[in-house]
Every structure is written in structure tokens, then in C-alpha cells.
Amino acid sequence: MNKTILEVTENIIERSKKSREIYLNRISNAKSKKVKRKTLGCSNLAHAMAPLNKEEKSSMVNMQKPNMAIVTAYNDMLSAHEPYSTYPSLLKRTLLEDGATAQVAGGVPAMCDGVTQSQPGMELSLLSRDNIAMGTAIALSHNVYDGAFYLGVCDKIVPGLLIGALSFGHLPAIFVPSGPMPSGISNSQKAKIRQEYAQGKVDETALLDAESQSYHSCVTCTFFGTANSNQMLLEMMGLQLPNGSFVNTNTPLRDKLTQKSAKVLQKLVEDDISISDIVSEKSFVNAIVGLMATGGSTNHTIHLIAMAKACGIILTWDDFDNISKVTPLLCRMYPNGSADVNHFRDAGGMSVVIKELLEAGIAHNDVQTVVGFGLDNFIVEPSLEDNKLVFKDSARISRDETVISNVEKPFSKEGGLKLLSGNIGRSVIKTSALKDEYLFIEAPAIVFETQEELQVSFKNGELEKDFIAVVRYQGPKANGMPELHGLMPPLGVLQDKGFKVAIVTDGRMSGASGKVPSAIHLTPEASNNGIIAKIETGDMIKFDVISGEIKLLVDEEVLEKREIIKPNCQSNMHGFGRELFSSIRASISSAENGATIFELSGEEKA
User: Fold this and answer.
1) Which residues pair with residue 518 across a beta bridge?
2) Half-sphere exposure of 17 (CA within 13 A, CB side)
């Protein structure tokens, strides 16, 4: 094993020792009590069985076969989740072949960031994750289940489902994906049209036509944003079937994989392997390694910390940074390349990535997964033979080295994310899509309180110069930390014109962003009296990705005399349901602590 990976793992284990022990003791206690179905009162059990058919009721009464929960994020507005309309019936039919049963225990909200980008609803996006976790717990609270299926794909949904699942850590569990849509218009072509629209070169009709050619059917978008990063993480953590995340929906292979998930969950129940037996410090290290090796979404520097908290594990941004320094970037997918996840799958997919990481000693192999002990169980490829699902040893070498490379010839010697720190605070940056000439910028700040202010300045021709955009009061406490997707087209245009531009913000960027250097998730945020709230237009900022430094070049004496600038944020507090989330914004933690309302599982303070 790589020395740094071992050191990071040991550090996580040591700092999490107390909280992890408390969590595992609680799960062990719940596990020893087994499912309460046998001890339910007759009225309770009758309620639980009421909607079942005769065969299902018979199975529930004799208590010999398991009853599984299905927690679903189905809706038919979110393209990745529309296929889930048929999953419960398919899972139920498959289980019933062996006399087992399943019930849709509950549904959780699933919003589409693509629909809400740059809209007021986006301010509920990050906050929805913890709501999903609570919804998952409510679904499982009926306590008649021996195991659980989790149906979710996209940005906040998978992290929320996993947090909720870990609160029921005594239950066996498996996540069931829906797969990506077929490739449409190329991502680079889509980005080009967006920039042309920002410049006024094409009209709204042309823009909508391009977007519709990109997002053209049900299932997951094909770029490697947060949704597809979720699927990569689930495989790295051993919670999903091997190399099956990126098999297209509405295909015989996809259906067979869904049925296989039912069989695997049954086996987990029989073997008494719960989700708490799978999710460990090592599996979280593997998740971070996978994030770095694939150039995944920056959003997971928030989500992984929150997910780990749910099972008593304490992750820090320093863990991410240290892992990134020894993890080579193996993948080129949009936004750090022209390929999409279908090309990634065709090149060998996760099995090739995992093989490379294991052979280099960068990922832990000694971990439990849903299909056995050892992450090397995931170096396989699913296919159909005589209409039967088989997992064969996959091509151990990439079929397309422009999409998946190897540790000897990586696209970069370091991972796709990096920690930046300095007198402004701490932030993260996605480096996988940055050209070398953008790794160092020293330029004056132009301060904006919203992304809309920047867009107006751009349209007025006021930004034709080198500058660093400081976009503040976009953190969790201010307005729920929306993704500032609207910054990319205008700044991309300015960058293409030869200007050196960058972003410093306490907000988030889209999981598909990365072309413009962006110091994001800055903590302390402006609403928590961070230094970013004292920056004035014209202040010089040094933005040094290579050294990992971001520094406000203003004398400390001058800074101390400045007052915190506090704009009126009332417009972010009401409308579109935002008033219902005021208590969450008031109690939410910093981005570096997972931007969550939940305390560390096992104790109140880390």
C-alpha cells in the first residue's frame, strides 16, 4: 500500500476512534434485536400486510423469508429517476420467486439541479440532502424490514439516502442505479453554444435546441458531474453491483442487473452482512481515491464528510488534499475532456480504474462489498449470455487510453481536486480541467453579492480585463449554498479572449464545472464573518494553485479596521418554500464540516 494512503487511513481511524466505537455499539445493539416483525402486535402487523396479495401475506406471516424495504427517489420530472417507476415491481417479482417480499417503504424528494440552476429553487438543493436522509429514516421506521434497496442517482439524493441508510446501519443494503442516457450532442459543443448565447451570438431557440439535444431522454445526464460521481463512489465503496453503474437503461442488461440486485440483497440478509459491515474508514478512503482518480465532482468534498459523520467517521479537507497528492488522474471525461460516461464504460469503466488503483497500492482491497470481501471483486464486466447475466473478468487494460489511462502514464500525477488556504480562509478547487497557464493568477478583485450582478457587468462590457471575481454570501448559512452555474458562460468567454480570470466564493459550482479556476466552498463564509466579507473591489488577490495558496494582498492592519459588509439578504429568505428552511440555514455547519444539520454520530462534538 502507498505510504500516504496508509497514513491518511490511520489518521482517520485514530481521530474517529471514540465516535466510531459509539456508532458501532449502537448498531450492534440494534442488530442483536433483529427485525421486530415477529414481536409486532397483531394490529401492527395487519396494517403492514394490508396491501399485499395472498402469496405475499403468507410469506410475511410465516416469518421464514425476508421482507425488504424499497426507498425510492422516483419522480418523472428528474430524468435519471424516471426509470424507477418500474423498479419496485421488478424487484418484488424477483424476490417472490424465492418466497421473499418487498414493500415500497417510502419516497424521498428528488430535485433536478439542471432545472433549478440559477433559479430560486436552487437554494433548496443542498438543504434537500438532509431532508432526504430524514425521509429515509421515516420510511424505515416501520421496522418490518430485513434489508433495504435504495433507488437514487443524482446529486443530493445518493448522499441523503446513504446518510439515512447508515442511521439504520443494522440492515443489509444495496443501491440500485438506473444508468445513463445514450450520448447526444457533445458536451464541448453544448458549452460552445452556451458561451455564444452569453455573447449574444445565438438566440434562445438555438440554445434550447442544443440543450435538448444534450438532455434528450430519461436517465442520467452523460457528463461526469455529481450524479455520475455518485455512481462511481458507490462502486468504490462496494455498495452497488460491479461495473454496472453506467449500463444504459431500458436494455435487457440493465433489467438483469436490477434483478441481480434483488438476489444479492437476499444473500446479504442470509449472511447477516449489514451496511455497517461494508462502510468503514477504508471504504471512505477508497471513495476519495476514486474521486481524485476520475476527476469527480467538487460537491463530494462536502457530501463525503457528511456521509462519514453519519457512521462516526471524521473526514477533513486535509485528507482529501493528501490523498490527491498521491493519486494520479486516470480519466478524461467532460468537463476535463470531451468523452462522456458512455465512452468511459466502453473503455472498460470502473473495473479498469479499480484495477489500476489496486495494483498501484492506492486503494484498499481488504474491504467488504455487497458481492464479497475484496474490492478486486469489482474488476469484472457484466454481460448477457443466453439471456443470463454473467460477470466476466474484464479487459484489465483500457480500450481507449484517451478516456482511461494508467498509473504509468496518467493525465496528471495528482488527483483532480486540491485544497487552497491562506488569510482568506480554506477552499477547494477542481484542477482536472485547468490548463497550466491558469494555475497562477494575481489580479484585482471585483466583488459581487450575487451571480446575477456579474452577469449584468459582463453584458455591460465592464469585465474586459484580468480580475478575480469574488462572489460572496452564497454559503450554507446565507442562502443554502446554491451552485453558481451562471458564472461559467461569461467567465469562459472572457478566458477565451485571453483574459486571466478566476473565482473566489463561499458558494458551490456545478459538478460539471472546472474550466475557470474556482476557489469554492470558502470557509469561513461571509455570513459567518469570514474575511471574504471584508474584501473590496480593487484589492489584489494571489491565486496560486501550484502552491495551494490563496491570499488577499492587503495589510492586516488595514483589514482589521475594515467592517464586515453585510448586504440585505432578505430576498433569499422567502418564496419558493425558502422560508420553510430558515431553521436549517441557521443551524447548518460549514462546508468543511459537511454543510449539514446533523451532529457527528456518536457524540455531539468531534
Assistant:
1) 503
2) 4
Give the separation between CA 522 and CA 280, rounded to whole angstroms: 28
- The Cα–Cα gap between 598 and 517 comes to 31
Q: How many CB atoms lie within 10 A of CB 407?
A: 16
Alpha-helical (H) ranges within 395-554 are: 451-459, 476-479, 488-496
3-class SS of residue 99: coil
Q: How far apart are CA 214 and CA 225, in angstroms?
A: 14
Residue 602 C-alpha cell reads as 456518536
CA dihedral 35, 36, 37, 41 (to 10 degrees): 180
Strands (E), 1-154: 67-72, 101-107, 147-151
Would you place residue 373 in the very low, low, confident or very high pLDDT band (cuts 50, 70, 90)? very high
| Per-residue pLDDT at 394 exceeds 60 | yes
Q: Specify the pLDDT at position 388.
A: 95
* Closest of 427, 432, 437 to residue 415, by C-alpha: 432
How far apart CA 375 and CA 242 sit, in angstroms, is: 9
* pLDDT single digits (tens) 54-100: 888 888 888 889 999 999 999 998 888 899 999 999 999 999 999 99
Closest to 297 (Cα-Cα) out of 231, 224, 240, 188: 224
- Residue 295 has phi, psi (to 5 degrees) of 70, 45
Q: How far apart are CA 91 and CA 102, in angstroms?
A: 7
* Residue 202 grid cell: 445565438
Distance from the first to the final alpha carbon of the chain: 28
pLDDT at 163 over 90: yes
Query: Residues 480, 123: contact at Cβ < 8 Å?
Result: yes
For residue 544, what is its C-alpha cell? Answer: 496560486
Give percent of the chain with pLDDT exceeding 70. 96
Nearest-angstrom CA–CA distance, 433 and 436 = 10
- pLDDT of amino acid 575: 79
Q: Are strands 368-369 and 372-373 parallel, antiparallel or unpaired?
A: antiparallel
Instruction: Tell me the C-alpha distance between 519 and 504, whole Å.
Output: 5
Which tens digit of pLDDT belongs to each residue from 117-154?
778 888 888 999 999 999 999 999 998 999 999 999 99
Q: What is the DSSP letter of 217?
A: S
Distance CA 529, CA 523 (A): 10
**CA–CA separation, 15 and 305 (whole Å):** 14
425-430 vs 518-523, strand pairing mode: antiparallel
For 462, other C-beta atoms within 10 Å of its C-beta total 12
d(CA 472, CA 284): 31
CATH class, 417-572 region: alpha beta
CATH 3.50.30.80 positions along the chain are 417-572
Gyration radius from the chain CA atoms? 24
Nearest alpha carbon to residue 382 among 353, 350, 420: 350
Residue 85 CA to residue 440 CA, distance in Å, equals 48
User: CA 202 → CA 191, 192, 206, distances in Å?
Assistant: 13, 11, 6
Question: Which residues make Cβ contacts (< 8 Å) with residue 395, sequence separation at least 6?
Answer: 348, 351, 352, 381
Q: Among 327, 139, 134, 344, which Cα is nearest to 228's?
A: 344
Contact status, residue 345 vs residue 183, Cβ threshold 8 Å: no
Cell of 323: 490523498
Contacts of 588 (CB under 8 A, 6+ apart): 127, 476, 477, 595, 596, 597
